[in-house]
Every structure is written in structure tokens, then in C-alpha cells.
Specification:
CATH topology of chain A: ABC transporter involved in vitamin B12 uptake, BtuC
Strand order of the largest sheet of chain A: 1-2
CATH class of chain A: Mainly Alpha
Order of helices and strands of chain B: HHHHEHEHHHHHHHHH
Low-confidence stretches of chain B: none
Number of domains of chain A: 1
Number of helices of chain A: 13
Number of strands of chain B: 2
Strand content of chain B: under 5%
Structural class of chain A: mainly alpha
Number of strands of chain A: 2
Largest sheet of chain B: 2 strands, antiparallel
Number of domains of chain B: 1
Strand order of the largest sheet of chain B: 1-2
CATH class of chain B: Mainly Alpha
Order of helices and strands of chain A: EHHHHHHHHHHHHHE
Helix content of chain A: 55-70%
Radius of gyration of chain A: 22 Å
Strand content of chain A: under 5%
CATH architecture of chain B: Orthogonal Bundle
Largest interface: A-B, 55 and 55 residues
Distance between the termini of chain B: 64 Å
Largest sheet of chain A: 2 strands, antiparallel
Mean pLDDT of chain B: 90
Mean pLDDT of chain A: 89
Oligomer: heterodimer
């Protein structure tokens, strides 16, 4: 049996909507198989992974807290990927944003003012954008592959954060623990609901998604992103500069990742420590694709991937399965999303042996 | 053995996985396929090699498990990008994310366990050569394979008919298809070769470099291998040279830490990653030579017309 693809005359709108859901279904089925292989009752495990977190208020808040950075980073990456700029270093930009934003509450901890929080957020965005400017500069001016350079910078950012919290920024009263001093109350992102811990970061995420949706759909800049991403040549004829687009998309996604970083540190952790992210910058890549690179879709995708984090913690407690299953789920999900997307552009046909095979396919070796 | 030989030995150990993984990716990319999942295939090779060694007691079966696991894992990438024409960059990332996840899950049982180190094989006569003998001829099997593969791949790509076909596919898949070369089938084989090499590189990590299982023990080496392919402008001998250069950089930071030069250890640990970026910039800033060296169909999807 062989699988053949036949190009559709035009992209299928039906499958464009349906494919993420097919992917989710396949992921859940594969997840059930995985739990079965681990010797657990698959139905009970899937229930406690995907459903139980939705049933209590505490978990819902946890989902919102984890969805915020995923959505913020994911919408930024969607603009990058649509314009064919492969920033995969969002994790590093997240960390650098967090460090830059923390300058105010750590270094100037004696300064108390309502301006502290806004300044932190601005610094966070600048930090993330500056760190993304490195691969942007190297790609635009030095012709260097941004995939590799942005990824290498992730490792460097992690090590830099590690040095900061163990060295210059280590809190004098933390008994040698590698943490900075706790942020003062005015440096903490306020909670937005009386029922739990969800903070302003979630609002930033929704606002960024709506703004970018508007930009992509109704503005010339959005059109420029799409055209340059699909055909650089066509974009050049329209007078768009692919070099400027590199800068625009990388700085935008870097700033959003930086905002996510400082929001996470300020709203959720309250200080800097060696590890501030369970891989949000990489998971956001999955979020971007699951949301089909559409900012509104990314909101839903971000909530779902946040559920996989919370669900992973839940099964760890209830079934004593390692929380590593979360990573497996996330990887499987991206695979299924990418394979289901084929349905949008192609019709898939199964060809069985005995059917006529075009001569060119028999390829002489 | 003197201090110089000891240092050179560690350089060889650090360079071998880079050379192997980069060599596999080189063949994959010469066939026009960009597989960014090297890190994922490598870590799968590492965990499977370790698990198989623990289960059977034989590190040689461990090596086989690493190679087979890497090759099978790469088939997943092949199916998505070659049969379903999914985006190669995104699928490669997916392979890395999935590989890190699954290996963490499998490796859970082996954390903290002490492993079996791959024994050294002394080659008679040659291993008695002063200085060179202990360095090059009293090594483990994976080192010998890595050197043989560099020679073999170089011969295969530039001296054999099949190698010519691979390069033809990588430079222009439409023309190769028109000439009757099985583009998809050849690419599947090239992807699997890349997976097998990455798996072997992973086996080297968990059987030779640090004979134990540590989560995420590949630590970005798969990505450095990808950069090495660019650095080597898709030529096997330069992969060997580049691999040893990077091996030397990553070892020099360890020795610098041991000497205690007063530089924070994090800065030294960042050295290999920073060096990778610098080298990438140096090698690719000339747009024209980059264009000439890069396989022209690299990363482009191919759907045969019927």
C-alpha cells in the first residue's frame, strides 16, 4: 500500500477548521495507549489528565496562569512563522525579558512607586526584543541561519540567569539559596479575580492576541507579513522589504516573549531563580501551530497546552505517573497537528499494489 | 601518559558524537532534507542504548539499540515530511520535543544507575606507537566507526553512483525525478541514515562520554551538529575537522573550570554555544559562497507529479 497526495485546487476551509480537532482526538487516543502501556487504566488516566483539572476552581486558575505565557509567546511566534522567520529561541528571550524586568525590583528595591510595575513590564519587553535582535541582526546583515543562532542563545540565556541568581543578584538573606530578593508588593502583577491566583498576565495575553489578530487581518503590515512569508519575490515586487520584516517579526516576538517572562516572574514566582520556565518558549511553538498560526486560535491552543501541564501534575499525584508524560503529550500533539494539516492542501489517496503505477515512480536504482 | 595526551583523549571523546551526528545529517541534507530533529534522535539513541545495555549486560547490543532506535525514530520524521509533505522545520522541532519527552519517560527508571562503559579495543602493533598509539588505536568501537564513516561517506557521496544520485536529488529534485531516480525512496534512506548516526552518537554519550543516564544529557549537541554541517559546507572531511574543533572548545572550558581562572563557570559553559554562533556567522556571512555550497533543494517540499 502506498500513500499518494493529490493537490486540492484550493485550500480546504473545512479541514482548516477541523484539522486541529482531529489532531487533538488522535493525541488523546495515543495518550490512552501510552497510559495503557504504563500499566494504568487509560480511561481513568485520561479523565484525570484532561477533565478533572477543568472541574475545580484552583486548577482553572492554574491553567490561566500557565496559558498566559504560552499565548503571549505563541502569538508573537505566529507572526514570525507566517513571515518565514524561524525564531525558536523564545525561551531565551523569555529569560532575558525576566532578567531585564527584574532590574527595577532587584537593583532598585528601595524605590517604592506606582511606576515600578509599568517600568518592569517595559524593561521586560525591551530585554526580550534586544535578545531577539541578535539573531535578527545576524540573519538580516550576516546571512546567518536564525534557527541555529536563536536556539544557541537559549542555552546562553539559561546560563546567564543561573550566574545572575548565584552571583551578583543573590539575595543577602536567602541563606545561600540561589534566588534574588522577593519582589516588593508594588512589583507584583495584581490578581484579577477574587476566586484565585490568575493575574494581569492573562489579560496581557488576550489583549496581545486580539491586537495581533486585528493587525494580521485588517492592516497593511499584516498583509506584508503574509505576502513575504509566502513568496519573498512577490513581496519584493510589492515594495516590501524582507530585511525589515526580519527585524519587525523578530523584535515583536522577542518583546512578547520578554513580556511573558517578566509577567511570569512578577505575577507567579515573585523572584528570580535558576529555573523560571518549564519550557514555555518551546511549548509555545506547539501552541502556535495548534492554533494554525492564527492569534485567536492560539488563545484556545494556549489554554489546551496549559491544561496538559496541569493534567500532567494531576496524574503525577493521582496515578503516580511521572509528569514527563506532559512532554510526550505535547510532542505527539505537534506531530498530529502537522500531519493533519496535510489534509488542508492535499487529498490523500491510498494506492494498493496491483494498481497502475506511473513509469517514473518505478525509479531505476 | 602525559597531560597533553590526556587532554587530547578527552577532546576525542567530546568530538566523536558531534562528528557522528553531523555526518548523518550531512547525508540527509545532501539529499535535500533538513531534519532539525537531530537532538531528539540523539537523546533517543542515548536512552535506548543505556536501557539495552542494562537489560542485556552487553554495551555492543546497546550500540545496536541506539542505532536502530535513532533510525526508527527518524522514520516518523520521514513519514511526515516525505509522505505527508509537512513543513520540515516544524516537524524537526516536533521530533526534538517528542524525543526529549519520550526519553525522559523511558529513562526515569535508569536515573542514578551506574552504567557499563564501552570497553577499549587495542589494535595490535599500531597501539604500541608512542604517543599516537594510545590516542588513536586504543579507543572504543564507536570512535573507530566514526572515522570509518567519515572516509566511507566521503567515498560514497563523491565516488559512487548512488552518492551522485543523492546529490542530484538534493540539488534539484524535480530533474532527478524526471530522470527516473526514486526521490522519495532515496530521501527515506538518507533520513534513516541520519537517524542511525544520531542514534549512534547518542549511544556514545551514554556508553562512553558519561556512562550513565541523565535527562537531557545531549545538552544541545544535536543542534551543534546541525551547525557543524553548515560550518563544513556539506563536506565530510570538514565535518571531522569541525567536530574536533568544537570538541576542543567544549573540553577547554572544562579544563579552564578545573584550573579556576576566576571566570564564572557559567560563562565557560556558554562557550561552546557562543562559539557555534560565531562560527556560523563567519561561515555564512558571504551570501554567494553559502548559496553555492548549500544543496539547492534543501528543505523544499517535493510532491511527484503524476
Amino acid at each position: 500500500m502506498r500513500i499518494e497526495l493529490e493537490k486540492r485546487p484550493r485550500a480546504s476551509a473545512f479541514y482548516a477548521v477541523l484539522s486541529p480537532f482531529i489532531a487533538l482526538l488522535l493525541t488523546v487516543i495515543a495518550g490512552g495507549v501510552m497510559f495503557f502501556l504504563l500499566g494504568k487504566d487509560p480511561i481513568a488516566a485520561l479523565y484525570s489528565f484532561f477533565v478533572e483539572p477543568l472541574l475545580d476552581v484552583w486548577s482553572l486558575h492554574e491553567i490561566a496562569i500557565k496559558a498566559a505565557p504560552l499565548i503571549l509567546i505563541g502569538v508573537g511566534l505566529s507572526v514570525c512563522y507566517r513571515s518565514n522567520n524561524w525564531n525558536i529561541g523564545a525561551e531565551g528571550q523569555f529569560i532575558m525579558g525576566a532578567i531585564a524586568g527584574a532590574i527595577v525590583p532587584v537593583v532598585f528595591h528601595e524605590w517604592h512607586s506606582p511606576l515600578v510595575l509599568p517600568l518592569m513590564l517595559v524593561f521586560g519587553m525591551i530585554g526580550g526584543a534586544l535578545y531577539a535582535a541578535i539573531p535578527a541582526f545576524l540573519k538580516a546583515n550576516m546571512n546567518t541561519n536564525e534557527i541555529l543562532s536563536s536556539l544557541m542563545l537559549v542555552y546562553i540565556a539559561q546560563l546567564f540567569l543561573d550566574w545572575m541568581v548565584r552571583g551578583p543578584w543573590r539575595s543577602p538573606d536567602a541563606y545561600n539559596f540561589p534566588v534574588t530578593r522577593d519582589f516588593a508588593p508594588e512589583a507584583v502583577l495584581p490578581e484579577i479575580l477574587a476566586s484565585g491566583r490568575t493575574n494581569l498576565g492573562f489579560v496581557f495575553a488576550l489583549a496581545a492576541a486580539v491586537l495581533l489578530w486585528f493587525m494580521m487581518r485588517y492592516t497593511l503590515k499584516g498583509f506584508e507579513v503574509t505576502v513575504l512569508g509566502q513568496s519573498e519575490r512577490a513581496g519584493r515586487f510589492a515594495g516590501f522589504s524582507s530585511r525589515r520584516m526580519i527585524w519587525f517579526s523578530m523584535l515583536l516576538s522577542g518583546a512578547l516573549a520578554g513580556l511573558a517572562g517578566i509577567s511570569e516572574v512578577s505575577g507567579n514566582i515573585g523572584k528570580l531563580q535558576p529555573i523560571i520556565s518549564p519550557g514555555y518558549g518551546f511549548t509555545a511553538i506547539i501552541v502556535a501551530f495548534l492554533g494554525r498560526l492564527n492569534p485567536l486560535g492560539i488563545i484556545l491552543a494556549g489554554l489546551f497546552l496549559a491544561l496538559t501541564y496541569v493534567g500532567g501534575e494531576a496524574v503525577q499525584l493521582t496515578l503516580s505517573v511521572s509528569d514527563k508524560v506532559t512532554r510526550v503529550f505535547q510532542g505527539l500533539l505537534l506531530f498530529f497537528v502537522l500531519s493533519c494539516d496535510t489534509l488542508i492542501l492535499y487529498r490523500i489517496r491510498l494506492v494498493f499494489p496491483g494498481a497502475a503505477v506511473p513509469a517514473a515512480q518505478q525509479g531505476a536504482e | 601518559m602525559g597531560i597533553v595526551e590526556a587532554i587530547l583523549l578527552t577532546v576525542i571523546t567530546a568530538a566523536t558524537p558531534l562528528v557522528l551526528a553531523a555526518l548523518g545529517e550531512l547525508v540527509t541534507e545532501r539529499a535535500g532534507v533538513l531534519n532539525l530533529g537531530v537532538e531528539g534522535m540523539m537523546i533517543m539513541g542515548a536512552v535506548l542504548a543505556f536501557a539495552a545495555t542494562q537489560a542485556t549486560g552487553s554495551p555492543y547490543l546497546g550500540i545496536l539499540a541506539g542505532i536502530g532506535g535513532g533510525a526508527l525514530f527518524s522514520l516518523l520524521f520521514g513519514f511526515l515530511t516525505l509522505t505527508l509533505v509537512a513543513n520540515q522545520v516544524a516537524t524537526g522541532l516536533a521530533l526534538t520535543i517528542l524525543g526529549l519527552g519520550i526519553s525522559g519517560q523511558i529513562g526515569e527508571a535508569y536515573v542514578g544507575m551506574s552504567g557499563t562503559k564501552l570497553p577499549q579495543i587495542a589494535i595490535p602493533l599500531l597501539s604500541d606507537i608512542p604517543y599516537l598509539g594510545p590516542l588513536l588505536f586504543r579507543q572504543d568501537l564507536i570512535f573507530y566507526i566514526s572515522i570509518a564513516l567519515v572516509i566511507g561517506v566521503n567515498w560514497f557521496l563523491f565516488r559512487s553512483r548512488a552518492g551522485l544520485k543523492i546529490r542530484a536529488i538534493g540539488d534539484n529534485h524535480a530533474s532527478a525525478h524526471a530522470l527516473g531516480i526514486g526521490v522519495i525512496r532515496t530521501r527515506y534512506l538518507a533520513v534513516m541514515f541520519g537517524g542511525a548516526c544520531a542514534g549512534l552518537a547518542g549511544a556514545q554519550l551514554s556508553l562512553v562520554y558519561t556512562p550513565q543516564w541523565v535527562e537531557n544529557m545531549s545538552a544541545g549537541r544535536g543542534w551543534i551538529a546541525l551547525a557543524l554541517v553548515v560550518f563544513a559546507s556539506w563536506r565530510p572531511w570538514r565535518v571531522l575537522a569541525g567536530g574536533y574543533l568544537f570538541g576542543a572548545v567544549s573540553i577547554s572550558q572544562l579544563h579552564a573550570q578545573a584550573l579556576g581562572l576566576g571566570i564564572p563557570s557559567q560563562f565557560l559553559s556558554a562557550l561552546p554555544y557562543a562559539a557555534t554562533v560565531v562560527v556560523l556567522v563567519l561561515i555564512s556571512h558571504n551570501r554567494r559562497t553559502t548559496l553555492i555550497n548549500t544543496p539547492a533543494s534543501l528543505g523544499k517540499p517535493f510532491v511527484p507529479d503524476r
